[in-house]
TrEMBL record, chain A:
Parts forming coiled coils: none
Similarity remark: Belongs to the globin family.
Pfam families: Globin
Keywords linked to the UniProt accession: Heme, Iron, Metal-binding, Oxygen transport, Transport
GO BP annotation list: hydrogen peroxide catabolic process
UniProt-recorded name of the protein: Hemoglobin subunit pi
Listed CDD domains: Hb-alpha-like
Subunit structure: Heterotetramer of two alpha-D chains and two beta chains.
Ranges of residues in domain Globin: 2-142
Automatic annotation (TrEMBL), chain B:
Span of the signal peptide: none
Quaternary state and interactors: Heterotetramer of two alpha chains and two beta chains.
Similarity comment text for this entry: Belongs to the globin family.
Organism: Dryobates pubescens (Downy woodpecker)
Cited Gene3D superfamilies: Globins
Residue ranges occupied by any Globin domain in the UniProt entry: 3-147
Keywords: Heme, Iron, Metal-binding, Oxygen transport, Transport
GO MF assignments: haptoglobin binding; heme binding; metal ion binding; organic acid binding; oxygen binding; oxygen carrier activity; peroxidase activity
CDD domains, sorted: Hb-beta-like (cd08925)
Name recorded for this polypeptide: Hemoglobin subunit beta
Role, per record: Involved in oxygen transport from the lung to the various peripheral tissues.
Pfam families, A to Z: Globin
Amino acid sequence: MTLTQAEKAAVVTIWAKVATQAEAIGAESLERLFFSYPSTKTYFPHFDLSQGSAHLRSHGSKVLNAIGEAVKYVDDIRGALAKLSELHAYILRVDPVNFKLLSHCILCTVASRYPNDFTPEVHAAWDKFLSNVSSVLTEKYR
Amino acid sequence: MVHWTAEEKQLITSIWAKVNVEECGAEALARLLIVYPWTQRFFDNFGNLSSPTAIIGNPKVRAHGKKVLTSFGEAIKNLDNIKATYSKLSELHCEKLHVDPENFRLLGDILIIVLSAHLTKDFGPACQATWQKLVGVVAHALAYKYH
């Protein structure tokens, strides 16, 4: 599902704001994920998942920064995330169903922090964009 | 029967007290139709759904959104008996409306996003978790009588 020019613009505009709080937004998204979908914690037995933990903040940062790369190279997400795609396929092997769950939690976090910017059009563009990112990350699974 | 802790019940009712059912219902349905355009398939007789602006301003969308969220309120009034509460509605959605239950899950998640945007700091991770459980239970109840 390719993004239209307007959708790409919407993604980039919101990203500019999100990037300023990447660590906090990443950590909160993960917190929401682990609270709402406890099965996702099975991928992090080695983490301290308590609120505000260093693990959550550093991993949240990592996830959001990767999304930032996808935003920067929105016309070639596959190229931008090629290494991450291999990592998820061969090493991490996170079940594909979980990408939708994390995407949803990222949207909740962004909506709650930028309610006025999170218009229906922006919501649709981000849902589509994160769906594309998820597809790229799972496309080498088999 | 679903088990709700006292804390979960409290989170549900306290959040629901802050919800403007007409506004949130209209917004949730509009966003469903905008973010997942294929859901428009159920609303051929709603008139103009040609753009986000048209959808948001469409009076039938607003009215139906309010109806749907008002019905959601029934589940909240009957947390210990949601399946029974939605028994007839479930049959209706299967036999007359022919709605794929996946759509209930989509709408539930959209509602959560709308609540996040409206309630911001009041709708944190613990709150969301309880409401995810609620929308899941509602979706399950609505699909329960499908055959």
